[in-house]
Amino acid sequence: MNGAINFTYGFSHGVEWGWPIAVYLLLAGISGGALIVALLVRFYKKQHEDTPLLKAASLVSFVTIAFGMVFLVGDLEKPLYFWKILIHYNFTSVMSIGVMAISIYIPLTLIMCLYLFEKEISVVLAKKSQLVSYFAMIMAILTKIRPFIEVLSVIFAVIICAYTGFLISVLVRFPILNTAILPALFVVSGLSAGTASASMVASYWFKEDTHSSDLKTLHVIEWPIMAVEIMLIGMLFVSLLVGNEFQQTTTVAFKSGVFANLFWFGVMGIGFGLPLVLNFVLGKKIASTHLAFYLSGLASVVGVLCLRMFIIYAGQTFGV
Amino acid sequence: MENDGKRRAFLKVLGLGSVSLGGAGYTLLAQTTVEPSKAKPHYGMIFDQNKCVGCTSCEVACGKVNAVPEGQVRLYVENKTDPETPMEKRYVRVSCQQCEDAPCVAVCPSQACHRDGKTGIVTMNPDDCIACKYCIVACPYDVRFINEKTKAAENCNFCLNTNLAKGKEPGCVEACKYKALVFGDLNDENSYINQILHVKDSVRMKPTYGTKPSLRYIPIVKAGV
After folding, report:
1. B212 lies in some domain
2. Which chain A residues contact residue B113 at CB under 8 A?
3. Which of B139, B143, B151 sits opposite A77 (nearest CB)?
4. What domain range includes position B95?
5. Which DSSP state fits B166?
6. Domain presence at residue B211
7. Which residue in the set A5, A8, A84 is minimally distant from B110, CB to CB?
């Protein structure tokens, strides 16, 4: 008798969470991904000096998460009331948990920037001798806990990437979103976009040689990350294909229409195809040029943006 | 020495006895004071499709009573008549299902969307709402919206702050000329809504989500030829 009555009318206007949220999800992914990759390289190689890669990653993670906040708050209908979220907590809300994580994570990225840009900041502050001494005092304390801060940063970077997935995977109305794979996919695609962003910034602003040891390491791990990403997207598709009638109807998003174009040209073509062609198909000469380095990096980031856009828009379009 | 031990034991018994007796007396007292107060209400509503003619009086009344901005609704009557059988009209009430396990309350980051302490009705505190729209996308029934005037998310709360506060039935129930809507306390065994539910088959919308809606629908079931 349960099928005897139902309604299909809804009070929302289709996609309630639009492109600002997709951009925020990308920025949070880049921020977390860049910091995770750079710090893991540091731990793995037991580095003690401040590498250009870590400099770039710290700067990228702080700037992207800060910009992410702009998009996040900007998407509210009452942006000036965003502080209400900081004084009322709800522990069953992923958004509330995320806000808590963010309010720890942003200071962590800021402290990471302080470590990596201590000299630069001192030079700027040198004009006001008083400030320099305060700064030196703070840094003396912070430097003592640096190993602890670094480990904590990795943990919170993972939490930030994963929470953005859980944030929308709890939306039971939307089969594409309401999957267990989404948080994993967001962590992995965040790593991919973060790796690309950190290596581009390291090379462009911090004059890291594109063939240096660190960037070579990133260049090597880039491909397994991409493979896992493709695998997770494949799993998402299969889980919808073999799911219930509502899940099956959402597979149209991959097959035809504007979402399919976004997916196949944006995510697959630009995100995965272009870097693969630039690095493996056109020969070693082209693969080792600066143009190929920046182009495939940008393609990775754009691909992840397309993935977030696809998930957000197609996800909310196909509701139960 | 021997005497001392006995005295100590006596004092112990005396002490323990008075504590336990006093405690027991206190619990008895507490029980007698608690018993007369009634269990918390659980407000529910029945929509009887057999009686609804689709006149939308409920929609109009709802908008008026709750000052819903024009073009927006808390309650909508959807025409679900099968085009194959246009003479067999089928209307369905679209509104907040007042879930016992409400996803909107669970996801609200500022606790603006909450369960009213006294009545247990899922309602909204517009002042605390930051309009993040999380509740709107989290609702399995898609029956929440941002009020254009207050810029806060909103849902049908059985006229909690309007008619119910004045001791009246919700606006839609008052307005229905065909008695297609019944409102009442599901926790009260003698309430009219429970009497109906005892004798009629009713369903909940999308029960597989496990949200336990408080709205019950009595569908038109055509039996025989």
Report:
1. yes
2. none
3. B151
4. 43-106+156-218
5. G
6. yes
7. A84
Chain A residue whose CA is closest to B107: A93
Residues in contact with B138: Cβ distance below 8 Å, sequence separation at least 6, in sequence order: A170, A171, A172, A173, B103, B104, B106, B107
Do the chains contact at A17 and B151, CB–CB below 8 Å? no
Domain assignments of chain A as residue spans, ordered by start: 15-317
Give domain status of residue B113, yes or no. Answer: no
User: In a mutagenesis test of the A interface, which of B107, B125, B200, B216 is the best target, namely the one with the most A β-carbons within 10 Å?
Assistant: B107
Q: Do A12 and B136 touch (CB under 8 A)?
A: yes
Closest residue in chain A to residue B72, using alpha carbons only: A11
What CATH number is attached to the domain comprising B214? 3.30.70.20
From chain A, pick out residues whose CB is under 8 angstroms from the CB of B140: 172-173, 320
B129 contact residues in A (CB cutoff 8 A): 78, 81
Cβ of residue B196 closer than 8 Å to a chain A Cβ: no
Are B95 and B180 in a shared domain?
Answer: yes
Same domain, B29 and B55: no
CB contact under 8 A, B130 and A8: no
Structural domains of chain B, count: 2
User: B143: which chain A residues are within 8 Å (Cβ-Cβ)?
Assistant: 10-11
**Block residue for tokens 């139902």:** A6
Q: Are residues B165 and B209 in the same domain?
A: yes
Q: Do B90 and B1 fall within a single domain?
A: no
CB-closest option in B94, B140, B151 to A78: B151
Topology at the third CATH level for domain A15-317 = Formate dehydrogenase/DMSO reductase fold (1.20.1630)
- Name which of B108, B142, B217 is nearest A93 (Cβ-Cβ): B108
Q: Which residues of B are less than 8 Å from A17 in CB distance? A: 133, 137
Note the pTM of the prediction, 2 decimals: 0.86
ipTM over 0.85: yes
User: Does one domain contain both B55 and B100?
Assistant: yes
In tens digits, what is the pLDDT along chain A, a chain of 320 residues?
A: 556 788 999 998 889 999 999 999 999 999 999 999 999 999 999 998 899 999 999 999 999 999 999 999 999 988 888 999 889 999 999 999 999 999 999 999 999 999 999 988 888 888 877 888 888 899 999 999 999 999 999 999 999 999 999 999 999 999 999 999 999 999 999 999 999 999 999 999 988 888 888 898 998 999 999 999 999 999 999 999 999 998 999 999 999 899 999 999 999 999 999 999 998 888 888 888 889 999 999 999 999 999 999 999 999 999 88
Question: Same structural domain for residues B100 and B160?
Answer: yes
Within a domain: B176: yes
